[in-house]
């Protein structure tokens, strides 16, 4: 009866342990990758929401700028037609009052838009 003692045999328990370790490492990696994909998706959704709201704010800003320029031209046209200093002062007062009211309303709208942008981004991040 000849026995070959030169070969090394891995005990069955060691093989089972190694196999379980590899399976656990694979599962941990898969879980990590799943969480990473979810985080990236959340960031993309949040960025999309912020980008959409930023475009709305940009459009509003351009509209407001156009309104202010038009109001300034209208004021200038009225000022040129004024008959005396008293009329000029009334026009000036009316123009400034209108501009202050307009700026107040626009500030509220910008504030609401910024709040909405933050809320939309937070909602997009929570969806995933």
Automatic annotation (TrEMBL):
Superkingdom: Bacteria
Lineage, opening ranks: Bacteria, Pseudomonadati, Pseudomonadota, Alphaproteobacteria, Hyphomicrobiales
Residue segments, region Disordered: 102-128
The Phasin domain, residue ranges: 31-127
Biased composition (Low complexity): 113-128
Name used for this protein in its record: Phasin
